């Protein structure tokens, strides 16, 4: 778990749902909840909030035991509240745990007003925490300067091959939790460093990639619609990486 402002706890492992739509999306999320994921990542843009809501209800789990993130498309500037209300209706919940601005608005002048509105929406209780996605550190600093409120999270493309120690430290210094997306799409799962370490722990290179995020306290949200992979991607808590292995994996990126 990582801690967000407002005493909100976010599980380090979440389930990605981009391109998991319709009946396949519903089944994938149900399988994920059954496999032990307690954190689901969606977005207005993914068009699957209804299916996710249905899977959450059918899982039989308590709402408060599942962390749900959705995202605001920046072209909805001026219609922020209406957009989260649509998300909540589709999901069938009163509140999401995290609401992210999906990417920086095309018009930079829209950035601060949108962020202010997201903070106001959070204050009315429709989201427990608010954050951003695909933001640079400079853009995060602009939000903090204007409102004195740091985004709880910045969700960005991340993997061992994109590892950037300095960028990670910039997030930590600002109290922003780093959440990585596309961990597999940006990885070479046949890389010899990953296969060697996977062999040493009797796990797969994909599991090593996920465990590496968790050992760095970076949130990671792998997506799969394949039942075996959904389960394997959740089974990453039975081993941990040594300091030397972490350093070898870090070295796949910029260091
Ligand atoms: N904020 C943003 O702008 C943004 C952008 C992109 C993604 N995201 C979020 O991040 C999530 C994850 O990123 P992503 O979907 O782009 O990519 P990803 O999770 O890196 O990769 C998903 C792909 O990897 C395959 N896969 C899953 N488990 C595997 C395993 N154990 N071994 C080998 N291949 C495996 C999946 O196939 P199958 O499904 O066929 O099993 C799918 O083709 C998204 O679903 C979304 O929630 C956010």
UniProtKB/TrEMBL annotation:
Q: Check the record and name the PROSITE patterns matching this protein.
A: ALDOKETO_REDUCTASE_1 (PS00798), ALDOKETO_REDUCTASE_2 (PS00062), ALDOKETO_REDUCTASE_3 (PS00063)
Domain NADP-dependent oxidoreductase, by residue range, is 13-252
Q: Which Pfam families match?
A: Aldo_ket_red
Please indicate if the UniProt record lists NADP as a keyword.
Answer: yes
Q: Record keywords: Secreted included?
A: no
The alphabetized UniProt keywords are: NADP, Oxidoreductase
**The family this protein is said to belong to:** Belongs to the aldo/keto reductase family.
Q: How is this protein named in the record?
A: Oxidoreductase
Instruction: State the species of origin.
Output: Micromonospora qiuiae
